[in-house]
Amino acid sequence: MSRSQPQGFTPTGTISTPKDRRRVVFATVVGTTVEWYDFFLYASAAGLVFGQLFFAPAGPGIAQILSFLTVGLSFLFRPLGAFLAGHLGDKYGRRVVLMLTLIMMGASTTLIGVLPTYEVIGVAAPVLLILLRVLQGISAGGEWGGAVLMAVEHAPKAKRSLFGASPQLGVPLGLLLASGMLALMAVIAPGDAFFAWGWRVPFLLSFVLILVGYYVRKKVEESPVFVELAERKEQTRMPIVQLFRKHSLLVIIAAFVFAGNNAVGYMTTGGYIQRYATDPKGPLGLATADVLGAVTLSAVTWLIFTWLGGWLGDKIGRRNTYIIGWLSMLVAIVALFPLVNSGSIVLLTLGLMLLTVGLGLTYGPQAALYAELFPASIRFSGVSIAYALGAILGGAFAPTIATALVESTGTTVSVTVYLAIMAVLGLVATLLLRDRSGIPLGPDHEAEQEVSPVRGLSKV
C-alpha cells in the first residue's frame, strides 16, 4: 500500500474495518439529509406560502404557478453544478466538492429565512428569492454525485447497493425533517402567524444543521478509487469532454431512468400535493398541519423502501429491483388521486405511502447502478450529469405541469396520465441497460468499464 493511501484501505478500494464503514455511511447520510432538507424545505414553502408572500401581485392562480416555477428553475442550474462538481471531483477529489456544496446550500437556505417579502421591498423580493434558489440548484447538482461515489467506492463489492443507499436515505430523511419542521411550526404558529414568521424558522435552522454536516464530513477520508487515480496521475484533464465523446447515449438513457422516479417523487417533494390538498379555494381545503403530517409519514415509508431497494439491489441485482419498483409505482400512480380526492386525510396518507414503495425501490439501488455504468476516470462527471439531466426531464417542472394540467382540463386524471407516462419511460430506459452488479470500480479495470452497458452496443 502506498504511503499516501488513507489508513484502513486496501488497494482494491474496500474499507478494511467496520469503524471506517460506519463513518462513511454516517457522514453520507447526515450530509445528504442536510442538503435535501434545505432543498425540499423550499419546495414545500413554495406550495404553502411563497406564492402569496413573493408573487401576490400576479393574482392567486398565476402567483402559485410562478412560485412552482421557481422550484423548477433551480433544476435548470443543476447541470451547471454537475458540470462544475464533475470536473472538480474527477480532478481534485470527491471530498472537497462535498464540503463546497454543503456550505453553498446552507448559506442560501439561511438567507431565504431572513428575506423580506414583496410587501416590504417590492420586486426585489422575488428576484432575490430566485437567485438564492439558483444557488440551491447549483449545490444540489454537485452534491449527489460526490455523496454516492464516496459511499459506493468505499463499499465492499457485495454490498455496493446497500452502501449506495446511504446517501439516498438523505432524500426521504430530508423530506421528513422539512415536512416535520413545517408541520410543527404550523401548530406553533397557525394561520397568519405562520405566514408572518412561522415559515422562516425551519430555514434559519439550516445554519445549525450545516455546522453539524460540515463537522461530520470533514472526518471522512477521500474515496480510495480517487486516491489511486491521483497516485498514478491518471485524472482526466477534461473529463466532461471525454464523457460526451464516448458515453453520450449512456448519459441520456441513465437520465431517463432517474426522470421517471423524480417526476413522481416531486408530487410531494415539489410541494404539489401539499398545495392541492390545502388550497382553501380548491376541492379539498384540508388543514395544512394535517397534510404536512401525511407527507411526513410518507417520508418514513419512503425511507424504509429506499433502504430495502438498496438491500435488494445486492440480492437480486439493480435492474431487477428497478423493474419491481416501476411496476409498483404504476399501480400507486393510478390509485393516488382517487385516494387524495376522497377528502379523507387517512386515505390521502395511504395514497402517498403507497407511492413511496415504488419510489424507494427505484431510488435505493440508483447509486450503485450509476457508479457501475461509468469508467473510474470520468465517473463523477458521468453520474452527476446523468442525475442532473434526469432531474430536469423529471422533477424540474412536475408541480408546474400538474398545476397547469388541472387548470386546463379540470381533472386530476390528466396528472395521472402524465405521471404514468414518466414511469413507463423510466421502465423502458432501465430495460435498455445491462446489469453490471459487481463490476470492478478501480482504475485497473477501465477497459472493462468502457464496454457499453447499453443493450445492443458493444462499445461506445
Walkthrough of the structure:
Mean pLDDT is about 85; it is low at about 1-15. The chain is globular. It starts with 17 loop residues before the first helix and ends in a 10-residue tail after the last helix. It is mostly helical. About 75% of the residues lie in helices and about 0% in strands.
How far is it from the N-terminal to the C-terminal residue, by CA? 34 Å
Q: Which range best describes the helical content: under 10%, 10-25%, 25-40%, 40-55%, 55-70% or over 70%?
A: over 70%
Overall pLDDT score = 84
Q: Number of helical runs?
A: 21
Strand content: under 5%
- In terms of quaternary structure, the protein is single chain
Query: Which of globular, elongated, flat, extended, rod-shaped describes the shape?
Result: globular
Largest sheet: none
Q: Which structural class best describes the helix and strand composition?
A: mainly alpha
How is the topology of this model organized?
Blueprint (H helix, E strand, L loop, with lengths): L17 H37 L5 H17 L1 H15 L1 H20 L4 H4 L2 H31 L5 H9 L1 H19 L3 H7 L1 H19 L5 H9 L6 H27 L6 H7 L9 H29 L1 H23 L4 H17 L4 H6 L7 H15 L4 H12 L3 H19 L14 H5 L10
